[in-house]
Write a structure and sequence with these properties.
Largest interface: A-B, 35 and 36 residues
Structural class of chain A: alpha+beta
Order of helices and strands of chain A: EEEEEHEHHEE
Largest sheet of chain A: 6 strands, mixed
Helix content of chain A: 25-40%
Shape of chain A: globular
Oligomer: homotrimer
Distance between the termini of chain A: 11 Å
Amino acid sequence: MDWEVKHYPEYWGGKKLAYPHVAPEAPKFARSVVVGNLVFVSGCTGQDTLTGNPTPKNFEEQMVSALDKVKAAMEEVGSSMNNIVKTLMLLRNLDDYPRMRKTELEYYQKHAPFLVDNPPASTFMQVASLAKPEFLVEIDVIGVLKRE
Amino acid sequence: MDWEVKHYPEYWGGKKLAYPHVAPEAPKFARSVVVGNLVFVSGCTGQDTLTGNPTPKNFEEQMVSALDKVKAAMEEVGSSMNNIVKTLMLLRNLDDYPRMRKTELEYYQKHAPFLVDNPPASTFMQVASLAKPEFLVEIDVIGVLKRE
Amino acid sequence: MDWEVKHYPEYWGGKKLAYPHVAPEAPKFARSVVVGNLVFVSGCTGQDTLTGNPTPKNFEEQMVSALDKVKAAMEEVGSSMNNIVKTLMLLRNLDDYPRMRKTELEYYQKHAPFLVDNPPASTFMQVASLAKPEFLVEIDVIGVLKRE
């Protein structure tokens, strides 16, 4: 396999997250970039970037929304949620750690059964804040296009 | 060389860190995942995950314990501590920075002499907290199986 | 392409950032490490590591200084700023987020025009602190040697 690079744009409310589609001060990044077999997915939060509706206040809802975005990003590149190999889990509140792991498991049971017995490598930290004070979780993922 | 993916499970006190071996709310991750020549090692803290004994309160002891885990993970995949290429160093207290670098150096002098003159690329930050309030350091590592 | 590893040392004020060129307690890391097509650049802050002058207090100046270091690192390995594929953006103060994105854009417009419409994948967090309390921003980058 080669080392080809592919760029997958991020869209919020139908707008490409790049200048001049959004303001200079706005977030601007790719949904993912593929390098060879590796998929670098931008950090996913619980923000509703499709409709622009307010971010849910509930931790589990934010976490599922973030995982939904990771899943969509992995599928967009022709892979799947089963092919996540590394996560960086960022929490706003340390108390959410057990909820984070439980919600992650339930999501894998539904959408990525391979990961239940073969979870990704993972690093965890509590941050001072994410991009908005109401964001409770952000998930940064490295995946692969295929495992063999 | 190819892009093969290999999964190395993490064990705490003999239990595989995957569901249903541990509770849904518990930490669940791989010790490492190898993708081609790259080794993604899960963040290592000073927690005594072999015996379950209390985590040492002393910074240097936590750091050595974390580095011991990195070393074991690198050796498990058939590589060595000398083949670390990138670290993300997370500290609970900024005052521990000089101790962190000194302990890292002493560890490399003993166990990874190549890194003394060829240290890994590295990024540093102080976090709000790690997975438990008593954790003082976490080390997230990317290594390689071989350098040439 | 192969999986060759190349190490590019970091120098501060002409001193190689490795022991015994600097003290055991000092920062010690590579400017970058290349693995195959991937370039892992050490986290770049606004610190003036050439002259040792005080770090600018102004956010935009720190950010440009950090981006200058990323650019130099990418060029040193034979690549360019256009070939950044992933960033981890670390801020000391959340209020600087809009300034961070605007300064990043202006830098790309001048020095990496490809990234204006094709920004890197990116993850953001506010940290408790960076290596020194006066550091306002740190940028951790993964790039590629070439895109095809």
